[in-house]
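W.,

You were right to be curious about this one. When I first looked at the sequence I had no strong expectations either way, so I just let the prediction run and decided to look at it fresh. Below is the sequence, 206 residues in total, followed by the output.
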Amino acid sequence: MKKNRAVVKVMQPKQHQESIASLMKELLLKVGEDPAREGLVRTPERAEKAFRFLTSGYETDIQSIVNGALFSRENSDGMVVVKDIEFFSMCEHHLLPFFGKMHVAYLPKDKLIGLSKIPRIVDTFARRLQIQERLTQQVAETIEEVLQPRGVGVICEARHFCMMMRGVEKQQSGTVTSAMLGAFRARKETRDEFLSLVAAKNHPFY
C-alpha cells in the first residue's frame, strides 16, 4: 500500500524552535509595543509555549498514538461512529484559530480501533498549520491506512477567526467539509446512514 504522507513524523528544526520567543519579541516591537513593560515581559516565552503546543502535531507519530490498540472485528460489522470530536486548529493563511467538531465513521473489515484513538488522531492533524479541507482528508486517509476498513467517512464543521475577526467579519458563518472513502463514497445508503447518525441531535452549526 502506498504510504500516506499524513502519518509521517515531521520534526521541526531545533534552531527554529529556539528562536520563537525572540521572534515574538521582534513582533511586539514591530506593532509599536514595548516588550519590556510589565504586562509583556514574559509574553514572548508564553507565546512560544502556546505556539509549540498548537503545532505539536508535527512531532506526533501516528503509530505511537495507535500503540497496538487494534482488535479483531469478531462478529461486529456495523458502522462505528465517533461524533462531536471538538478540535482547535490554526489557519495556515493568517495564523488565526479555527475550531469546531469532527464526526468520524468507518465500516470495519478485519480490525477495530480503540475509540479514544480517533480523537487523538484528529488532534494530531489539528495541531498543525492547516486548512479545513486538508485536515478533513488527512483524518480520513489515516483511519483508512491504519485500519484498512471497508470505508471511512469524515465530516468537519468549523468556524474560522480569519472570517470572524477580519476580512468579511461574519461571526455566524460556518464551514462544512467532508471526506468519503470506500463504501462511503460508493454507496449512497452508507452515506445516508452516516449523515442520519451525525444529525441524531441538534448541533450548533445546523
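Here's what jumped out at me. The first strand starts at residue 70 and ends at 72. And, maybe more interesting for your project: Residues 132-147 form the longest helix (16 residues).

Coffee later to discuss?

I.
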